[in-house]
């Protein structure tokens, strides 16, 4: 693929950081090398010597002085090498990308950091941008300053509708995109699994159709998949990722460890075509230099201790926990919101997406009156490309609260909705 149309002038203008590039050479350098090129602080001046972290199963992760030095010192921009190796092995096992030889992976400060850098690489103000709607609010926060012309694509209980995507792209001819005409959409953003905010997942059939449409219109697919391991069901039955079917080299995949290990460690990773990952790496060199070293070493040591079986045992327990949370939330909704709201049962994730009957807009109801009822959600307008339009939807998170709190919260919400209906 020719990636020139997908790289903005700002991204093209980025040049490698000489210090960062020289630092990359240290990985395979001779022990006799006298390195006087970088301003690396002397580890003898670090106040931290070693650490031991206790896991929930009682085992300990010991960060001896050599590892502690790795935790506290500058590291390669692409990521801590042992962690990168773990993540590449995991990616090959789960997705088996057909163009693996042309694929690269970079560790980022959470998956949203990678997404932000990818968007800056590909989008300039006023561009067309195709996206699922509703769309994750964090993504919209990245996009809004670009004053984009959104191409929203609706979905249903099986995710984004391919026919809706074709209809949304109908104003443009596929050959215009293939000829790299500038004023056509270049990017398609999608949450394929346990979509935030709707909680639904794309069917395998739709994924293949959407990939074909992206190929027809020469779109890069931004596959934002932080809930991959929070799909409900056997991992062997998970539908294939877009990365796993990417024979063209048009998928940038964003993974996160926030939902399965810790949100505070801020570790994500981006996988995709080498020319695009290289542009993200240059941006990383100029911004954070690299993802947090302490977090990277800690995760790498944890994955080594667990092994593959231990990792999947843990992700299974995470999935089972949120599955029980989902069931309790749906049960509470059936008890308190039947007749007042409509919803699809989430196939994964942490959210219940509610459509409120007979209330044309939930914004004021939630932001001005919900607190008086001791309940708070996110109004649906926050997930829409055009936030000047009303929305009858709202998002309820079930990740943190207990089943008892779910009952109380949705009972309070039901009272709020009934009062709101009298005001309409």
Automatic annotation (TrEMBL):
UniProt-recorded Gene Ontology molecular function terms: 2-aminoadipate transaminase activity; glycine:2-oxoglutarate aminotransferase activity; kynurenine-glyoxylate transaminase activity; kynurenine-oxoglutarate transaminase activity; methionine-glyoxylate transaminase activity; pyridoxal phosphate binding
GO CC term (a single one): mitochondrial matrix
Pfam family, one: Aminotran_1_2
Cofactor(s) in the UniProt record: pyridoxal 5'-phosphate
Involved pathway(s): Amino-acid degradation; L-lysine degradation via saccharopine pathway; glutaryl-CoA from L-lysine: step 4/6
Keywords (A to Z) from UniProt: Aminotransferase, Pyridoxal phosphate, Transferase
Record has Transferase as a keyword: yes
InterPro entries: Aminotransferase_I/II_large (IPR004839), Class-I_PLP-dep_aminotransf (IPR050859), PyrdxlP-dep_Trfase (IPR015424), PyrdxlP-dep_Trfase_major (IPR015421)
Function summary: Transaminase with broad substrate specificity. Has transaminase activity towards aminoadipate, kynurenine, methionine and glutamate. Shows activity also towards tryptophan, aspartate and hydroxykynurenine. Accepts a variety of oxo-acids as amino-group acceptors, with a preference for 2-oxoglutarate, 2-oxocaproic acid, phenylpyruvate and alpha-oxo-gamma-methiol butyric acid. Can also use glyoxylate as amino-group acceptor (in vitro).
Family note: Belongs to the class-I pyridoxal-phosphate-dependent aminotransferase family.
Name of the protein: Kynurenine/alpha-aminoadipate aminotransferase, mitochondrial
UniProt source species: Petrolisthes cinctipes
Species classification: Eukaryota, Metazoa, Ecdysozoa, Arthropoda, Crustacea
């Amino acid at each position: 693929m020719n990636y020139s149309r997908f790289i903005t002038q700002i991204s093209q203008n980025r040049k490698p950081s000489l210090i960062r590039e020289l630092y990359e050479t240290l990985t395979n350098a001779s022990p006799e090398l006298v390195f006087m090129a970088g301003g690396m602080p002397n580890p003898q001046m670090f106040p931290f010597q070693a650490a031991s972290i206790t896991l929930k199963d009682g085992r300990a992760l010991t960060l001896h002085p050599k590892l502690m030095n790795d935790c506290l010192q500058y590291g390669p921009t692409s990521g801590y090498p042992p962690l990168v190796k773990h993540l590449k092995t995991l990616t090959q096992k789960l997705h088996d990308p057909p163009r693996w030889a042309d694929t690269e992976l970079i560790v980022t400060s959470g998956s949203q950091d990678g997404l932000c850098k990818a968007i800056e690489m590909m989008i300039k103000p006023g561009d067309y941008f195709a996206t699922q709607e509703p769309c994750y609010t964090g993504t919209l926060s990245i996009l809004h300053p670009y004053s984009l012309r959104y191409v929203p694509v609706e979905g249903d209980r099986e995710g984004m509708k391919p026919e809706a995507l074709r209809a949304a792209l109908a104003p443009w001819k596929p050959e215009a995109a293939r000829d790299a005409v500038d004023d056509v959409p270049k990017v398609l953003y999608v949450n394929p699994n346990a979509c935030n905010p709707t909680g639904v997942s794309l069917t395998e059939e739709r994924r293949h159709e959407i990939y074909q449409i992206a190929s027809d219109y020469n779109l890069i697919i931004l596959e934002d998949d932080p809930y991959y391991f929070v799909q409900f069901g056997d991992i062997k039955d998970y539908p294939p990722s877009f990365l796993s079917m990417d024979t063209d080299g048009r998928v940038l995949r964003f993974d996160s460890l926030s939902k399965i290990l810790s949100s505070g460690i801020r570790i994500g990773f981006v996988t995709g075509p080498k020319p695009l990952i290289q542009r993200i790496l240059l941006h990383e060199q100029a911004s954070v230099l690299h993802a947090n070293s302490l977090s990277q070493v800690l995760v790498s040591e944890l994955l080594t201790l667990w092994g593959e079986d231990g990792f999947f045992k843990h992700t299974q327990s995470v999935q089972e926990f949120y599955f029980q949370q989902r069931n309790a939330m749906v049960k509470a909704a059936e008890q308190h919101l039947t007749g007042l709201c409509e919803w699809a049962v989430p196939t994964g994730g942490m959210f219940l997406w509610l459509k409120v009957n007979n209330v044309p807009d939930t914004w004021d109801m939630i932001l001005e009156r919900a607190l008086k009822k001791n309940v708070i959600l996110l109004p649906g307008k926050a997930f829409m490309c055009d936030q000047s339009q009303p929305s009858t939807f709202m998002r309820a998170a079930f990740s943190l609260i207990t089943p008892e709190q779910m009952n109380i919260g949705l009972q309070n919400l039901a009272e709020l909705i009934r009062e709101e209906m009298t005001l309409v």
